[in-house]
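[SOLVED] Need 3D model of a two-part complex

Original post:
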Amino acid sequence: MRDKKRRIEAFSFFDYTGIARHLCKMAEKGWLIESMSNFGWVYRRIEPEKLSFWVSYFPKASEFDPEPTEEQREFHDFCAQTGWVLAARSAQMQVFYNEREDPVPLETDPAVEVQTIRAAARRSYLPVWSVLLLISMADCGLFISRLLGDPVGLLASALNLFTGFTWLLLFLLCALELGGYFVWSRRAARAAERGEMPETRSFSHVQKGAAVLVLLGFVYWLLSTLTQGSALQRTVAVTMLSATAGLILLVNGCKELLKRLKTPRGLNRTLTLLTSFVLAFVLMGGATFGILRAVRNGSFDRETEKESGSLPLAIEELLPGSYEDYRREVRREESLLLGQITTRQRPGPNTERGSEGPELELTVTEVKLPVLYGFCRDSLLRSHEDQVQDGQLVLADHYEPWDPAPWRAGEVYRLYWGAGYLDQYLLCYEDSLVEIRFSWEPTAEQMEAVAERFAG
Amino acid sequence: MPRLKFQTLTEQMFYTLLCLEDERCGMDILDRVPALTGGRVRIGSGTLYTLLEQFTEAGLIRETKIEGRRRSYILTEAGRKRLEEEYRRVCAQAADYRAVFGEGEST
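Solution:
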């Protein structure tokens, strides 16, 4: 039978009543809180009993303290005098339990209690959540601007969807957390004037729900990258994940080691911050450098060649002759909403035909969610827009409706650029949108070959 | 409008200061207040710790000695004056009560 167990708990810093209630229930089930950290709360087995819990705040404490300061110990002695035993502490938060039946509350003056919690919140909780709010807001802004600029590219990428979704959730959580704190703070201050201390409103379920959603999104992204991504995408994902995990473990390890070595709080904070900057630079920079170097050295070329076998449409299917010496570029993105494959076949440096040889570019967007079809089509049409200055047309660049019959498509658009039509088309099939660019004028047979491939 | 600090004393503040008429350490105060009030007033450890810190900062009490982790405090002149003002305020309240309800109602 296990004597200890670790649980991931999600409580707001100021949710003292929610935490105390939860710990009471755990004690009744035979588990007493022993330690609290970013990696979960640890409980030790006890005889199930009814204990009173109190969450108190010691504003001068820091998570970098190697051990409780003398002042903190003095505070703990005060608490012991009235039967309150320290069970666990995490930075400013101090959790006490009391075995007495009707113990004197640890805080008996609501005004003083509110002041103490506010002072503790100002020291670390508010700055950390405010910074997180600003970062997540900036990232949500970037996500939205990308969504407006290249919605199809964004929605087709599992990574972009996952990160955008995560930042949005984080932003909402930060807003809820900080909003919740300020609402509580005002209510508590008013109640304290009447000599009352209000119950806190717990966001625990929302926080746990958000964590589960992020975890599911992460698993989906990881699985889709590992099973469907290119070798480069898989390498980037695994390298960056390893670097991030390594960074978190090493920085936290550094902080804990310094605490064990009884390093003073200020020195620990400085060294840990320094370590995090250096390690972030070394690990992330190193990983990025390694990947870029591998790409430059052609380590992923073979994979590109292998994947080219599954091109949705190859130039060989439209034109006679061999194109084995051609460069083939393939980029795939896949999300729950869209799938997108972009291919390009063009003459390489040693191609027999020389640089004047024919080229074929293709982007196939598979729309998995029918409701997105019109949105995707319109955004692809909008990706080409005339350049107008002072009401005068400077450069024509737009799609115009074209005869869909030869392509056997529902709708077809042809790109008008400058002073004439280019051989670039947007073909709208039942559940896919094909943007195709030829470096030559396609014949009726070639259009039929394209239709054969995409019209089903 | 923010209220000035310690302009009026809560019951907890009043009894903490009152106990420090004589030199006492924090833990003595925790026992002294219920004894003094027949158990009517009890001060929480957290509240007392914060109050001692705030009173020291405000110059209402001063630290007299430290034995290990036991700090002793005593009321300063400013503290005594503040306590006296609070006493007068409470007395004035009691007088107002008596003026309304009469002496017999006050017991």
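Edit: Chain B touches chain A at residues 10, 12-13, 26-27, 30-31, 42-51, 54, 69-71 (CB under 8 Å).
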